[in-house]
Amino acid sequence: MIRDTENIQKNTLKDNFSSISISIQSSKKKFLTYGEQDKFAYLLIKAIATLVIILLLGMILMLVNAAMPAIKEFGISYALTDNWNPVEDEFGALPFIFGTLITSALAILIAAPISIAVALFINEILPTKIAKTISLFVEMIAAIPSIVFGLWGIFYLGPFVKDILTPFLKDNFGYLPFFQGASFGIGILTAAIILAIMITPTITSICREVLKTVPKIQKEAALALGATRFEMIKIALLKPSFSGLMGGVVLGLGRALGETMAVAMVIGNSPTITASLFSPAATMASVIANEYAEADSDLHLSALCYIGLLLFLITFIINGLARAIVWKKQRSGRSRS
């Protein structure tokens, strides 16, 4: 009796499996073949990539259309004029181009070496468990909203720059024009420091991933040949990873160029050009954020859109230059090998 029951159960299971396999096979027949799936995926990715390009071109056309009155009124001299007076309808973007470039350049000078050093420290020096914890904290900084960075800059970083950093720089480097003049804690230096803090997690994360791609055997070979740890990092890690590290730095620079709220809160928003890093200034993104809602004439709105168009252009030029450096480095590396 028991054997009969077991046989019945086995037959039932076989029937179930066979029915499931038949249904799977029949369902497979209904879907696309492998070749058709590949073709569908290719067309889908191609359509998405084309859509991105169309969106980019659409944004450029929109900016050109909105900026056309200012382009007709001021022409190319708009980018070379330092007069900004909305009351008299006199506009020039040079102070904002200067503010954007100087704060972004200072931020990259501060953030790039620190970010690469942090990436090396986490990947090569720290034990794995501690490295995971530290990297988590570093990446969490990137999730902090820029408005919070701005508030922190006003209440803590600004007073620190005014009371501690400025006296130190004046005492030791006061003979340079960059560290002369009065400091109120709000200005180019404060904006550059806050930008450097904001872009450090981005650059660090990318550099860590780039350094991880270096084969372990390459590092061990350098050490086996008698290199110290510093020499191993220099020869076996940094040199082959130059292109990837540059890519991370460029992405950080792209964020620094377009950062708005935190910079607008600590830079002082004054359309002036000065050599002193303690002076207030304004960036292209900050002037758009501050004045777009209050612009009371069509020419003022168009001038702000013209600044947006120039910011687009500057971003493309800087990214193109960085890409050219990477290509040149890759080409020279291939020719040596």
Quick tags:
337 residues; mainly alpha
Write the layout of secondary structure elements.
Layout: H1 2-30, H2 34-74, H3 94-125, H4 128-141, H5 146-173, H6 188-212, H7 216-224, H8 229-238, H9 242-258, H10 261-266, H11 284-291, H12 298-336
Helix pairs in contact: 2-12, 3-6, 3-9, 4-6, 5-6, 6-9, 7-8, 9-12, 11-12
What percent of residues adopt helix (DSSP H or I)? over 70%
Unreliable stretches (pLDDT < 50, length at least 5) are none
Please, what is the average pLDDT?
85
Q: Helix segment count?
A: 12
Distance between the termini: 79 Å
Tell me, briefly, the overall form.
Answer: globular
The profile of the biggest β sheet is: none
Counted beta strands: 0
Helix and strand run: HHHHHHHHHHHH
Q: Rg from C-alpha positions?
A: 28 Å
Proportion of beta-strand residues: under 5%
Question: From the helix content, strand content and strand pairing, which structural class follows?
Answer: mainly alpha
Give an overview of the whole structure:
By secondary structure, the chain is mainly alpha-helical. The protein has helices spanning 2-30, 34-74, 94-125, 128-141, 146-173, 188-212, 216-224, 229-238, 242-258, 261-266, 284-291, 298-336. Helix 3 runs parallel beside helix 6 (188-212). The radius of gyration is 28 Å and the shape is globular. The mean pLDDT is 85.
How would you briefly describe this protein structure?
By secondary structure, this protein is an all-alpha fold. It has 12 helices and no strands. The N and C termini lie far apart (79 Å).
